[in-house]
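agent> Task received from the user: take the single chain below, predict its 3D structure, and emit C-alpha cells. No templates, no multimer pairing.
agent> Plan: (1) validate residues, (2) run structure prediction, (3) serialize to C-alpha cells, (4) report one or two observations.
agent> Step 1 OK, no nonstandard residues flagged.
tool_call: predict_structure(input=
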Amino acid sequence: MRALAAPLAFAAVVLAACGPSPGPTQIGPPDAPGPSVPELAAGEVTDDGITLAVTAEPAVVSAGEAIEVEAVLTHDRREPLTLVGSGSGIVFFSVTRLEDGLTSGSPGWRLDCRQHILPAGEPTVVPFSKSGGIDSEDPNAEFRERFFADPELTLPPGTWRIDITTGGTTQIQECGGPALGLELSLVVTVTE
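)
tool_result: status=success, residues=192
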C-alpha cells in the first residue's frame, strides 16, 4: 500500500506544477444560482445576565420594500426582572446610511419614569419603532420627515446601519440609575 501512495502524491504535485487550471469547475446544473444573499442580519449582546438579540429581515432589500426589525430581551434570573426607564420603552432604534451619514438622528424618549417587567424564562419581544425629532435647520430634515411619516422601515438605496440601544436601569428605586448598556448595530443593504 505504501508503494502506491508515493507515486500518487508525486503525480498530484506534477499536475499542480503544470500550469494554471482552466478555471473553476462548476458543480451542479449550469443554471445553479450564484452565491446566496443573506436572508437576515442578526446580532446579540449580553450584560449582567440580560440579553438583547435583534434581527433585520431581509438583509438585502430593494428601495421601497419594508425591512422587518425585531428586538428580543431575555434574562437569566429565576424571577421576573423589573427595569425602570422611560414610559416610551426600553429599546430604541435609529438608522444611518454609511456612505454619507444620512440619519434618522438619535432616538427620543419621554422623561417620565416607569417600571418594565421582563418575565422569567420568556422572551420580551420589542418591534421596531421610530422616535426622534426634526429640526428645520438640520441637513437631514427632509429625510427625517419622510422617515417618520412612514409607519414601516423603508429606506433609500445605500448601506444602512441600524443602531439598537436600551434605556433604563435595574435599580428600581431610581430613574436615571446606571443604564443597562446593551447596544448593537446591524447592517442592511438597500438596492435601487
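agent> Step 4: summary for the user.
Helices lie at 2-17, 141-149.
agent> Done.
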